[in-house]
Amino acid sequence: MGCAMNKFELLLLFMAGRMQYLAHHHAGFMAMLHNRQFVIQLQTFDGASVRYFSIKNRRVRSHAQAHEQPSFVLSFKDADYAVKTLSKASPMAFMKGMQAGDIKMEGDFGLLMWFNNAAKFMQPEVPKPVRQAVKWVKAQRQAKEQVSS
Question: Whole-prediction pTM value?
Answer without folding.
Answer: 0.80
